[in-house]
Amino acid sequence: MLLEANRRTNLTGAKTAEEVALHIRDSLSVLPYVRESLVDGGFGGGFPAIPLAVAVRVPVTLIEATAKKARFLESAVRELGIDATVIADRAETAAHRPDLRGRFTTGTARAVSGATVAAELVLPFLATGGVAALQRGRLEPAEREALSDAALVLGGELEGVAEIGRSEEHTSE
Fold first, then answer.
1. Buried-state track 8-47, b at ≥16 Cβ within 10 A, e below 16
2. What is the mean pLDDT of residues 39-64?
3. What spatial distance separates the first Cα and last Cα of the chain, rounded to whole Å?
4. Is the pLDDT of residue 169 over 50?
């Protein structure tokens, strides 16, 4: 389904089933951090939210600013029978909605700009005690410090950085 839609709309860089499988595996590497509800801000092909929702059967809210991508996601969650809501809006705008702000126990962002931007997109959606799993490549010391500072400004704290899902193609943290 993803590969077919990707031929019409640029959803992901994955062009083969093997490449999609790598994205799925990488998405599932954050399973230990998923709690009762999940919000994902900024993604494209539905990674990591759709694989996580299938694996743990938690309600998921996918936020996607591009209308074509949002339509694909609506179709995908309907076809997969996932308890999901797709919000066709920018994460930074949707975060001001009272029905979304501070509501989720888990937030994810994968391969979205820098770590501080990912935190700015996800943290406003989290309830007190919620966890943000921000999948990034290697996190350099300066970016880690900037992320820690950004988290404090956003009302959170950087509890740690975990190197997970390491493969030759990429590393997620």
1. eeebbebeeeeebeebbebbbbbeebbeebbbbbbbbbbb
2. 90
3. 28
4. no
